[in-house]
Amino acid sequence: MKEKQILQETLPVTVVQDAERPLTAQEEEFCELYVRGGAGYAGKQTKCFREIFGEGVANANVGSYRLIRDPRIHARIKELTSSTLYEAETIAVKLQVAETLKSVMEETSTREYTDRFGIPVSPAPLRAVAVNAAKALMDLYPVKHASESRLKIENGQGGVIFNVIVPQPVIHDQDDSA
């Protein structure tokens, strides 16, 4: 019985709870710089390591390698990368939608159209499209002013009503020589 107790006491104990330890401020800075450091630092582990932990650190290559292999650091970098990728995709989609809305506004706010008989069509429906595109663009990129004053043109359902007046063709009598 005593042999078992002595044997258990002499065995080295390894603590696995290091993986649950939170990142230090420097480790968090390293992760941020490694992911969001721009062209100068992003993805360059040794350069990031030297920037955060100091230029005078001996064996920065080995230190950065060990740091990047730490499961906590690896998990944090993966987390930052996935959120950055999501943000970049969202921004790209927003920019694409904004450019489309701008081109719709440009085209429909000034163009003049004719029907199949060559008669000019009222620009009101086109202007309504331009207004709706402008409203969607404002929803996408809201503009805030120090003193907000709003003009609301709405019906009961929250939409804008435009009265469309279709121009009637002008008929010239041949008897009318004036």
List keywords for this structure.
mainly alpha; rod-shaped; 7 helices; about 0% strand
Brief write-up:
This protein has seven helices and no strands.
Task: Describe the protein in words.
- This protein has 178 residues and is mostly helical.
- The protein contains seven helices and no strands.
- The chain starts with a helix and ends in a 38-residue tail after the last helix.
Order of helices and strands: HHHHHHH
Radius of gyration: 34 Å
> Quick one: how many beta strands?
0
Low-confidence stretches: 4-17, 146-151
Measured distance between first and last alpha carbons: 129 Å
Kindly estimate the percentage of residues that lie in beta strands according to DSSP.
under 5%
Largest sheet, described in full? none
Derived from helix and strand composition plus strand pairing, the structural class reads: mainly alpha
Approximately how much helix is present in the residues? 55-70%
Number of helix segments? Answer: 7
Shape annotation? rod-shaped
Mean pLDDT: 75
Blueprint of the fold:
Layout: H1 2-10, H2 25-36, H3 38-41, H4 45-53, H5 60-69, H6 71-110, H7 124-140
Helix pairs in contact: 2-4, 2-6, 4-5, 6-7
